[in-house]
């Protein structure tokens, strides 16, 4: 009988350890860049599947010199981009990082980003949890480079 309780307790410990990944990333992509453009942005959805507030506090990627969390805000009648210290995702909610809102800013790109590439990221949360994912590079309508004709 004792062995059963020990095994059942071990099973519960393993289950609780497996539930760490309660933040999920969906729909991630990075905007392709024209030649000589040093900055880009990543967009995605963050889903918090826990019963507690989660706060995204950092993002890392080897593709750029600096990776920061940003938001667009209205200031003095103009839209301005500002760095933020964190992005809160309430319990059981989803926050979209999208054009015109929160996004991950990639500054000092080490190479141009072209459609079909993939960029690896690691997100850091105030809880200490880290979530890694890979995002495809996509050309966004209006971002397509103009064709050059040689005469």
Which secondary structure elements does this structure contain, and how are they paired or packed?
Elements: H1 2-18, E1 23-31, E2 39-48, E3 54-60, E4 64-75, E5 78-83, E6 87-89, E7 94-97, E8 103-109, E9 118-125, E10 130-138
Summarize the structure.
Helices cover 11% and strands 50% of the residues. With 151 residues, it is mainly β.
List keywords for this structure.
single chain, 151 residues, 1 helix, mainly beta, disordered N terminus, 10 strands, 10-stranded mixed beta sheet
What does this structure look like?
It is built from 1 helix and 10 strands, in the order αββββββββββ. Strands 1, 2, 3, 4, 5, 6, 7, 8, 9 and 10 form a 10-stranded mixed beta sheet that branches. A hairpin with a 4-residue loop joins strand 9 (118-125) and strand 10. It is mainly beta and 151 residues long. The model is unreliable at 1-20 and 143-151 (pLDDT under 50). It starts with a helix and ends in a 13-residue tail after the last strand. Helix content is 11%, strand content 50%. The chain has one helix at residues 2-18; strands spanning 23-31, 39-48, 54-60, 64-75, 78-83, 87-89, 94-97, 103-109, 118-125, 130-138. It is globular and about 45 Å long.
User: What percent of the residues sit in helical stretches (DSSP H or I)?
Assistant: 10-25%
Low-confidence stretches: 1-20, 143-151
Count the DSSP helices.
1
How far is the first residue's CA from the last residue's CA?
87 Å
Main sheet characteristics: 10 strands, mixed
Backbone structural class: mainly beta
Helix-strand string: HEEEEEEEEEE
Give the total of beta strands. Answer: 10
Radius of gyration: 20 Å
